[in-house]
Design a protein that fits this description.
By secondary structure, this protein is an alpha+beta fold. The protein has one domain (about 15-135). It has helices at about 15-35, 70-80, 90-115, 125; strands spanning about 50-55, 60-65, 115-120, 130-135. Strands 1-2-4-3 form a four-stranded antiparallel sheet, covered by helices on one side. A hairpin with a 7-residue loop joins β1 and β2. It contains four helices and four strands, in the order αββααβαβ.
């Protein structure tokens, strides 16, 4: 237990992190090859385009998600913060959700075609990300 009386999730072992980092690099290269804009791996802001990241938690992995331009994301956040009826979302919010869903499916299909073992990540934990579990030889 930590000093705050709750358990922190276990982190992945160093050898697991090395394999994940290598897998993330391969996925990044495969996506770059298609012409999709891929965010720099050392960018803390993420930027727009495909973001490939390694989750350090033991049950994490390699996650790939689509990042829209900051202006687009900010507009949606402002709309949602102002209060909306979930049963009647504004067109802008529906468009944003559609873009996220379409790009997740595109990324999933591209990586699968390139020989990666992929699935939709747990939406509760990772939103619209794609989980890259491995690659085929």
């Amino acid at each position: 237990m930590s000093q705050h009386d709750f358990d922190l999730p276990p982190k992945a072992a160093p050898d697991v992190m090395r394999r994940r980092t290598e897998l993330a690099g391969k996925a990044r290269d495969a996506l770059k090859q298609t012409g999709l804009p891929v965010c720099r791996e050392d960018s803390s802001e993420g930027g727009s385009g495909v973001n490939v990241r390694v989750d350090h938690l033991a049950d994490g992995g390699v996650l790939v998600e689509w990042n829209t331009r900051e202006e687009f994301t900010s507009e949606i956040v402002e709309i949602l913060a102002s209060g909306v009826d979930p049963s009647d979302l504004p067109q802008e919010v529906r468009h944003y959700e559609n873009v996220q869903t379409c790009m997740r499916e595109t990324i999933l299909n591209i990586l699968a075609s390139a020989g990666f073992d992929v699935e939709r990540a747990d939406a509760h934990s990772y939103g619209k990300a794609v989980h890259v579990r491995g690659s085929y030889p």
